[in-house]
Backbone:
């Protein structure tokens, strides 16, 4: 499953890092990070095709699964976990899986990413159907846990996609909708938690936010379905209702707390 000359493993454009000043290190990291948005922009046609396909399935009750290992897995879990409080969607709508399970969110789990059948086995806990989508996330494009899950998901009739930082990888070949963000060598050679991880986070934000808007979880530019889990969000929702309905702060807050969300309070 390995490929030769992975861009993500090529030597950094910078050397003798330990001899640089703090200012030099920060400036050079930032120089590299500036390249990420341009690489993501080039991938917008691929992202568009994937989101269009996923939207149809989600409107028919399908779910979106993110699956990855290490940094890639953590970013998928992060994006999925932020959607319920932000958009009031069920935590069963977008689900993040990481090789090694929840323990791997904080600790490296030895060999977890090297098992090609484990990803699909982990998905079985959710009883996947043909309406569901699996998005494999792997900077290398060769992670066995991820490639194996995407291959088996495709064979079982699920829609598949991926985010990778290398071109023409086994993961991309196994996916219906590959998304390739070719960000180049990392500042610290091989450390894909840097530019590759930043690109993954950007793409995940684009995918999930667009889907939530298309699924009716936003009104205008407001998070009208956010969960009221702290004082800051209650205050934000109250001010939304003030603007939308012309109420006093006290009236808006009472109405919000009784309704449970801005969206319900406007009905």
Residues:
């Amino acid at each position: 499953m390995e490929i030769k000359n992975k861009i993500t493993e090529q030597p950094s454009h910078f050397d003798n890092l330990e001899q640089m000043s703090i200012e030099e290190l920060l400036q050079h990291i930032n120089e590299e990070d500036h390249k990420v948005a341009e690489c993501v922009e080039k991938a917008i046609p691929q992202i568009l095709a994937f989101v269009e396909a996923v939207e149809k399935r989600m409107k028919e009750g399908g779910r979106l699964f993110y699956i990855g290992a290490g940094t890639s897995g953590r970013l998928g879990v992060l994006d999925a976990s932020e959607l319920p409080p932000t958009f009031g969607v069920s935590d069963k709508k977008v689900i993040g899986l990481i090789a090694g399970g929840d323990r791997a969110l904080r600790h490296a789990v030895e060999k977890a990413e090297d098992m090609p059948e484990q990803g699909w086995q982990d998905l079985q806990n959710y009883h996947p159907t043909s309406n569901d989508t699996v998005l494999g996330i792997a900077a290398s494009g060769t992670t066995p846990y991820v490639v194996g899950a995407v291959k088996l998901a495709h064979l079982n009739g699920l829609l598949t996609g991926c985010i990778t930082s290398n071109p023409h990888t086994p993961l991309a070949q196994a996916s219906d909708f590959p998304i390739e963000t070719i960000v180049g060598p990392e500042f610290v050679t091989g450390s894909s938690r840097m530019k590759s991880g930043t690109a993954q986070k950007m793409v995940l934000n684009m995918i999930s936010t667009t889907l939530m808007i298309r699924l009716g979880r936003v009104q205008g530019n407001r998070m009208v379905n956010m969960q009221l889990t702290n004082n800051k969000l209650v205050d934000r929702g109250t001010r939304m209702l003030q603007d939308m309905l012309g109420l006093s702060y006290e009236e808006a807050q009472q109405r919000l707390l009784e309704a449970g969300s801005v969206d319900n309070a406007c009905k």
Observations:
- The chain is about 50% helix and 10% strand.
- The radius of gyration is 21 Å.
